[in-house]
Amino acid sequence: FGAGTELKIIPDTEVYVLVDGGRATNLLKTKKVITITGSKMPAYLIKTSQSRGFFDRLGTNLGWGIGGEGGEADQKNGYGETTFEEVALELARNAAMGAGDVLRELHRKEEIEIFENPKGGKVTEADYLSENIITSLIRNKFPDHDIISEETVWEDNNSKYRWVIDPLDGTGNFIHKNPNYSVSVALLEENDPLVGVIYIPEIDQLYSAVRGGNAMVNGNVIKTTNRGEIRESMLITGHDPKGELLSSLYPVVKGVRRYGSAAINLAYLACGSADVVWEWDTNPWDVAAGILIVKCAGGRVTKKNGEEYILDFKIDNVNELLASNGQLHSNILVEINKD
Asked: Quick check: 88 and 160 in contact, CB under 8 A?
């Protein structure tokens, strides 16, 4: 149809209306007026390898579909029957999984483009594409919110809400075809995590939490372990250039693992696959979602000296992190701070 075209259809029976090949579907009752109008914007056909699931998530968050559903009478606080936190959580889930779909496809490519970032580290086309997907969805839903992402985005709208994103945590693993990489999306309220989501594409695990609620993985409640003996504990470590971990904790724990993704480390602590996580240095986008998920699962997060861990956006500062199942925390602090 051209831009000035308008077509009205009044069905005699119930009908299903399908938009975009069935991507959006609605059952309409008899005598319901269906209005079809032409668009000023032409349609484009795009060939892509992305799955239908990816476009379903993308379309949901961009508001693609059949217009007029709900209406003002059904709105409550601007979000229908749902709360702000529920809307933000659903957005974070869909954004992380949508980006994860793309990362999974790129991970299977024989070659990907690799660049040097300003700090001298490696960044890939996958990092940038994932970031673009997530930030575009957030801007569409919450245009006034602040957004900070690891790669290129640092948007300050003077909002009390700030999205903190690591579009690809574990870039080194990704480059070397190692499956231990993840997507981390967190929403902060006055610098305190409100919503946190971590998605691990290669095993299709979606970790999530809302402040004050349960930690979840794929819809199931998770808890940290109740292990209280250090000698029986499993520890996950990040980069430890000074050898503090090896010198103090390695001799007294059951085992040590390293996955190369701080977000995965915290997710595994939250679900009981480990008892302690040590990170010598962290950035907010590495851990913002994971900290909330660990706390909602019953864990504890501090600095090495036992002080409260605070997300620090002065990224030149070393910001160490010690997380545990909670029961082990005091004893771990003693061991790691021994002279």
From this structure: no
